[in-house]
Design brief:
The structure is a homodimer of 259-residue chains.
Chain A lengths: L1 E2 L3 H11 L9 E13 L3 E13 L5 E4 L8 E3 L4 E7 L2 E8 L4 E16 L7 E4 L2 H10 L9 E9 L2 E8 L5 E6 L6 H18 L3 E7 L4 H9 L3 E4 L2 E2 H11 L7 E2 L3
Parallel strand pairs in A: 12-13, 13-14
Antiparallel strand pairs in A: 1-8, 2-3, 2-8, 3-4, 4-5, 6-7, 7-8, 10-11, 11-12, 15-16
Helix pairs in contact in A: 3-4
The first copy, chain A, binds a DNA duplex (15 and 15 nucleotides) through strand 5, helix 3 and helix 4.
DNA sequence: CCCTGAATGTCGCAG
DNA sequence: CTGCGACGTTCAGGG
């Protein structure tokens, strides 16, 4: 670890830890004043500013400014590295092969240069995903509509995978799109795409239902224009968490809000 | 700055810098072994693992593991903070009001606790955005098709904003959707939505063209099924950069590849 | 505020 | 490897 290092000492530090272009063995943290240039899928350039850089052992790079969650520049896993001294500046390159992308950082001043070992840690247990919702609705279809019989979850069609597919009490085909969060135009359109293909194949008597906690006005209008339906369902995540506590991480489940 | 601090000394350090729940004055970097729980739009929980945490002066939080660009957990700008000692562990809370979201980090061991001042730095100059492409195509419509006359850029309709709108050599209306990267089903569907609304308003004689460097097979099929067109155009970013060097950051421009 | 769509999106999964 | 869609998407722009 180096605190307020000179350019030269930081160079020594990094050169020893990025041998042969390989990523560091642990997580590398560098804070300092630098200019950055990125060339790749897009291209950016910044004048000198204070940045905080993380380089991970999988070869990902994050260059952060003092605001926002998103890095100013970054590199996905797999990058290779070069370190150099030039014009009394420390140069750090990160390159990626496919697509070809480079980040070039020129540090004129450094305030931190740190390397720490980091184990992978235990896996992330998440609840409340759309996958959990599909599971819930498939196992308890009455939560959607009395008499609905789901045939498949994630029916793969030429038009893409439908979230739920089945038959209503009157024997009509039903295509269902489930959203965890508020639905917008994109989700309405997605349902429309599935239903249109199904109507072409099976005839006009195919229903399409978008199930979500909320829908935007324009998205609702679009559904109505195409004879599709919106079903408001709010999810209660707490039941899911309770269930997971008891039965382990794989046992995802949810309940409807207020059930 | 604290290196390998005790839990108690790290608590002192953080409590003094997160007064009244406010974010730190600079960027705070904490490395250590911790458990994390998140409750909000979703819910996650991790067992103990080595993490690297950044807390920014705008109240954003990033909790990184040793892999990938995306944080394991995070908080967007605006979070408020609490620090506490409990069971010989350091607790760091970050809360957000709307939507209500909390992250709770319980450190059992710390290896770094650092605060650094960071200025905002100079603005980011970016080239190669979709906005630049629209500019190029509007100013040089012959790159799309001989005789095409663009009327508007970003025509706002009830169905949303169209990238380009105009008239072809035969006087037919043309709706154009421009993509910087490969187009998929979502982009085809988006164009379909615009064109369908326009056909409803103006009659069937409306063309829709998706302009992109590449398109997926299914997306192309979907276009054809709805009488829409795909136009392959690859962008050359280098011309843009050259132009920007000369005329400053606001002067975004692009050229077609190989032009 | 909400709504909408871009993004160097990233990530994971399935074919 | 590509295609496809979810994501606690984040973010900026407009009404």
């Amino acid at each position: 670890m180096l605190l307020e290092p000179t350019i030269a000492s930081a160079y020594e530090f990094l050169a020893a830890r990025l041998k042969g272009g390989q990523p560091p063995a642990g997580v590398l943290a560098i804070a300092g004043r630098c200019r950055v240039e990125y060339q790749g899928r897009s291209a950016t350039k910044t004048d000198a500013g204070d940045r905080f850089v993380l380089v991970k052992p999988d070869g990902s790079v994050l260059l952060h400014g003092p605001r926002s969650v998103k890095p100013i520049n970054w590199q996905p896993p797999g990058a290779k590295f070069d370190v150099a001294l030039q014009n009394e500046q420390l140069l750090l390159f990160a390159r990626r092969a496919k697509p070809v992308e480079i980040i070039e950082m020129r540090f004129e001043k450094l305030s931190l240069c740190w390397l720490g070992e980091m184990d992978a840690g235990a896996g992330l247990q998440m609840s409340g995903s759309e996958f959990d919702l599909r599971d819930l609705l498939r196992s308890r279809p009455e939560l959607l509509e009395v008499g609905f019989k789901p045939w498949e979850r994630e029916r793969i069609t030429d038009q893409g995978p439908m979230d739920l597919y089945g038959e209503d009490a009157q024997g009509r085909r039903v295509v269902i799109e489930v959203k965890r969060v508020a639905a917008g135009l994109a989700e309405s359109t997605q349902l429309w795409r599935y239903v249109e293909a199904e109507r072409r194949r099976r005839g006009l008597d195919v229903r399409g239902i978008l199930v979500a906690p909320r829908i935007s006005p324009r998205a609702l209008q679009m559904l109505q224009e195409h004879g599709l339906e919106f079903l408001e369902r709010r999810w209660d995540d707490s039941a899911s968490r309770a269930a997971r506590e008891k039965s382990g991480p794989k046992q995802g489940s949810l309940a409807l809000f207020g059930e």
